[in-house]
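Records of this kind hold a single protein each, on a pair of labelled lines. Below, a sample record shows both lines together.
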Amino acid sequence: MKKANNKFRDICIVACIFFIVIGFVIIILKGNHKPDIEIDELYQYGEKLEGMDIAPNTIVAKIYGQEVLFREVETYRKSINYSIENGNTESINKNAFYEVLQRKVCVYIAKKYPDSVTYNLNVEKNLQKTKDEWENGYGEYSAEEYRKKFLETLCIEPDEIWLNDDEFLKYLQYISQEQMLIAKGLQILNDFSIEKPELANDEELDKKIKELNQLREEQTAAINTGNSETAQSLMKEILELHVEIRELYMWNLILNSDLELCVDKNELSNTVPEIYTKEPESSIQEDIDTEELEKLNNDTNEQAQDATQKILNNEFYLSGIIYDIDENYIYFSKDYSKRYYINKNSFSYLNGRTTDNMNVVDIKVGDYLNHDNKIIIIYRNISGDELNQELLYNLTLTEAERIIFVNTIEIEDIKITDNNTATVKIKYGDIIGNELTDETFYTTVEFNSNTKFYSKGNNINSINDLEYAKNNINSIVLDRNTINKESPAIVRIFESTDN
């Protein structure tokens, strides 16, 4: 790798950047500003909007320099209602206006804190993809069929389109791009909530961070002593607490922002959403010239540490998001200060959810890299049905077949049809927690006379005992031949504790 020509100059630049970033973070997030509004007021405001009959492009709020339009709130409200109608009871208490505010914060953070650790947005490519699909259709769908299905996913009826053709296409491109920014911003906030809790200036958050660190220490101790059951139980607590921390952190960012509630002004937005066609300009230091910025970006990979041999020697214990891939190396990072790389050709690769072999050319920036016994484990950065399919397949693997054994399964509803059969609605998320996504899914499974029950005290032995197992699930193993069919998948093995 290249060496810096002027070490002293590089050190000075990095030092300046560090202190300037800290200054920007403190100023922008306004951690010491006393909130002028409470969460309850935001919810009440959102309920007020639901009953209003106003133009789609009415500005109902402004936050971090972004307009929140009535159209956006209505679309999200329809999405929530659709989710509830399809059995997602967790959506009942969601407030569309507050959910949209959270998305705006994520977009703002993603633009304000560009970082090579976060995955490449590939904005130009995705904008063109949206345009091509809208104009020409996608796969087996004609343009007319695709438009109909696409609008349905956005909860927009054809007669509700309020812009001309060109402007509406630009709006759809904006939505597609915004989803990417939201994911990127959420990733940054996920790290900030743990690593920079002081920015939220909240005592309750500080307490939860201390509690999280204590749980992590207990989990490490359990792993070191070979107590896998305790380690698994603590992992679930850690994941749940991390979600609480992130939500509390988000509340503070909204309440301490420059939020303005302005629906009563009846102000209409005349601007077509700005399309983010390039990587954001760095807010780090405006007077560094282009040549210096290019060198600074190149130095990011040069500063990364080679983890190849340590992984081969089983002496490396970190994992992280892949932030760059070149001809010879894969670069990944656990946080913003620790960067590593591996030699592509030194390893074999497995899909962490399905355990299938992976070709290195199929690994993408944004995927999550882990390792086990000198093999690189890749968790693909996917969502929606594609992620759900991998998770369902994972549920067909036995404990011996699975790479990671982490319980993310919850029983939502139990219907016993006879002494031997029960249909059960389960909820599940990604097996690596919230490292890539906090998306959750639901499916219905069937317990029958062939289901094998295992429990710690041998007290949960049949479908009649499932109610007692609700909060004590270790794992469910499904019959692979029964997944992805109209009828419920069959449960082969059910393991639980019985506290």
In short: The chain has a mean pLDDT of 76. The domain at 304-379 is CATH 2.40.50 (OB fold (Dihydrolipoamide Acetyltransferase, E2P)).
